[in-house]
Specification:
alpha+beta; Beta-galactosidase, Chain A, domain 5; Glycosyltransferase; 9-stranded antiparallel sheet; 17 helices
């Protein structure tokens, strides 16, 4: 148990530390370590009604009150516009994230331990309360409900009636006609109906992000019970009526056993082991394809093609999860269209997948290559090679969004108002980082895709494709002369006519870090040195040289301000392992180079354990002075790429 403070926890600091647990189908529970919800996405049960999407926030939190020696102590903490009430954070004496989020409260002689966990593959959350002291006390619990889309906020609403059906210690709650029924059980105590609205709760991070930031939550009633020393009681919230009939003690034991089995017995590095456990949160079951997929990040992302293919390497391949890796690849190949895999599966069932990407499909080749290096799965290659050929044929013939092959063999594409690379921030038709033409990392990926296609054909005993070989040769002959900048780095983009966009950006690092390189060794070193000089930080790579007039030092403010900075200087942790891969490569994986990488990773390691999402890696950091994580609090490729680097380079971090 990590002690926050022997006296009173630092309220503001505690609000910056969050946790999340997931259920394998896109649902989750998440809050801060003192139980104050600071985001619209925080809650005890965010259910995935159409796994892994259709997320609805069902249960926001539980307000806890201890009564002992005729004294009542409210343990919850909520923020309002002009006040904090109650101030339960005074009584938080400890929090631990592993194996399950557990908070210790102390009020006088009374000590209450609170643990939250989810049931795997079920929209079910269990909250366990234990008397950890030597004195008895009474515990009153007041669940607060919303039942809304997790992107939205709720105000007191006459259409919300919250019909409650009570049956002893089991209850069902229907917020409005057509809503999902929420089932609720308490294993001890008496339920008292007391319907009311708790109004104007403030979500501080939403306010900082320039979003609507207040919400009204509904209380249907309270549960009150006596807890003697050593006794435990549970609240169970679920969309599955059968789950509330199961023993929560057994459910907890099953979840702890599942988590402990995630780490291979051959791994003894604690940081790597904890990263692997954290990475499991992103691997989900997709109902529409009956296969696995990968959530790009929590709280608000769904499964994105680009993120999935990049993250797959660390989440599944490096960790030996062959079944899951094969399934994720199959998920995206099954919805291949015009030679492109989806950039994004939508939030809502009625919406079609989006195919706005130049790179996601090319990353799929990298994933398949690394999959085969790890698992030597020839039958799988036989199953997918025709899809890989189909992808290349569409690209060579020209496909959506003006994606086509130039005379020099490069991939070129893009249309006004539609960003196709990972630097994809836009509002309306305004694209903040337009990269129409031949982006450097897209062409590194294109070359790797061509080489991997030939590799796959050779692996399964088929003749090489002469057209593919011819384009491969064209790329090899033209890349260096076309992209190399006389100042010893790679231009970020060239037009089809050969005009260069000379901004110093991190995308050039992929030419060195990907399996098949297009540069001689001395120029690879120059690329690494350029990135080191202008873009490297302790937490990731900047997306733009700080000397560039368009550089944005901070990621803050309203949506426009944040998106304007998103790829114009903001630091991305997922790029750091790519840099270190390139750095180790040009230094021949020497022990000195490895020691330097290990020393540099201490900052992200500290962030993983102590900042923002505990046991998670943030999406981004400020560009000029990166310190605390921002954006999505736990990002799949941020976690995955660390696993990939540590595993493949055999680093003792």
């Amino acid at each position: 148990m990590t002690l926050l403070n022997d006296n009173i926890p630092d309220h503001e600091n505690a609000l910056t530390k969050e946790w999340i647990i997931t259920n394998g189908i896109g649902g989750y529970a998440s809050s801060t370590i003192i139980g104050t919800n600071t985001r619209r996405y925080h809650g005890l049960l965010i259910a995935a009604t159409n796994p892994p999407t259709g997320r609805k926030l069902m249960v926001c939190k539980v307000e806890e009150t201890i009564s002992q020696n005729h004294t009542q102590t409210m343990l919850s903490t909520n923020q309002y516009v002009n006040t904090v009430y109650p101030e339960g954070y005074y009584y938080v004496k400890g929090f631990t994230r592993m194996p399950l989020p557990t908070t210790l409260f102390r009020a006088g002689e009374a000590e209450l331990s609170k643990t939250v966990f989810m049931v795997y593959n079920s929209n079910t959350t269990v909250v366990e309360y234990s008397n950890a002291s030597t004195v008895p006390f009474r515990l009153r619990l007041d669940p607060l409900y919303a039942v809304r889309d997790y992107h939205s906020l709720l105000r007191e609403n006459s259409d919300y009636h919250y019909f409650v059906k009570n049956d002893g210690q089991k209850h069902s709650i229907l917020a409005y006609a057509g809503a999902e029924t929420l089932y609720f059980k308490h294993t001890k105590g008496q339920y008292t109906a007391n319907p009311r609205w708790n109004k104007n709760i403030l979500y501080n991070i939403e306010k900082q992000r320039g979003q609507d930031f207040t919400e009204d939550l509904f209380s249907a009633g309270t549960v009150e019970c006596q807890l003697n020393p050593g006794e435990t009681m549970h609240l169970v919230f679920s969309l599955d009526e059968n789950k509330i009939n199961q023993d929560p003690v057994e459910l907890k034991a099953m979840e702890i056993e599942r988590l402990s089995a995630l780490v291979p017995s051959t791994i003894h590095n604690k940081f790597l082991a904890d990263l692997i456990v954290a990475s499991d949160q992103f691997i989900v079951h997709r109902k529409s394809t009956e296969n696995y997929s990968i959530i790009a990040g929590y709280h608000w992302f769904t499964d994105w093609g680009r993120d999935s293919m990049i993250a797959l390497r660390g989440l599944c391949i490096a960790t030996g999860k062959q079944k899951e890796a094969r399934s994720v690849i199959t998920t995206f190949l099954n919805v291949l269209k015009h030679g492109i895999i989806p950039n994004r599966f939508p939030d809502y069932e009625a919406d079609e997948p989006e195919y706005h990407t130049m790179d996601a499909t090319l990353w799929l080749f990298i994933a398949i290559y690394e999959y085969d290096l790890r698992f030597k799965d020839t039958p799988f290659l036989n199953n997918v090679y025709s899809k890989l050929s189909e992808i290349l044929q569409h690209h060579m013939a020209g496909t959506k969004h003006n994606i086509h092959v130039t005379e020099k063999g490069f991939i070129c594409g893009g249309t006004f108002g539609l960003p196709l690379t990972w630097m994809d921030a836009k509002i309306g038709d305004h694209v903040f980082t337009p990269r129409i033409g031949c982006p450097v990392e897209i062409n590194a990926l294109w070359y790797n895709a061509l080489k991997i296609h030939s590799y796959v054909l050779k692996r399964i005993g088929k003749k090489p494709d002469e057209k593919v070989l011819e384009i491969t040769s064209r790329v090899e002959n033209n890349f260096e002369n076309s992209f190399w900048n006389e100042n010893s780095y790679l231009n970020d983009l060239i037009s089809e006519e050969g005009q260069a966009e000379e901004s110093i950006r991190p995308n050039q690092i992929y030419v060195v870090s990907l399996p098949f390189s297009l540069l001689p060794k001395e120029k690879e070193k120059m690329v690494v040195e350029n990135v080191n000089q202008y873009l490297l930080t302790d937490y990731g790579l900047r997306t733009l040289d700080p000397n560039h007039p368009e550089f944005k030092p901070d990621y803050s403010g309203d949506v426009w301000s944040r998106d304007a900075a998103y790829h114009q200087g903001t630091v991305w942790p997922f790029l750091l392992p790519e840099y270190f891969t390139a750095y180790l490569k040009v230094n021949n994986y020497s022990e000195t180079a490895k020691a330097g990488v290990v020393n540099s990773l201490r900052f992200l390691k500290d962030h993983f354990y102590h900042d923002q999402c505990l046991h998670g890696i943030s999406e981004i950091f400020d560009g000029l002075n990166p310190a605390s994580g921002k954006g999505c609090m736990n990002q799949a490729w941020s976690v995955s790429n660390l696993i990939h680097l540590i595993s493949t380079a055999k680093l003792d971090v």
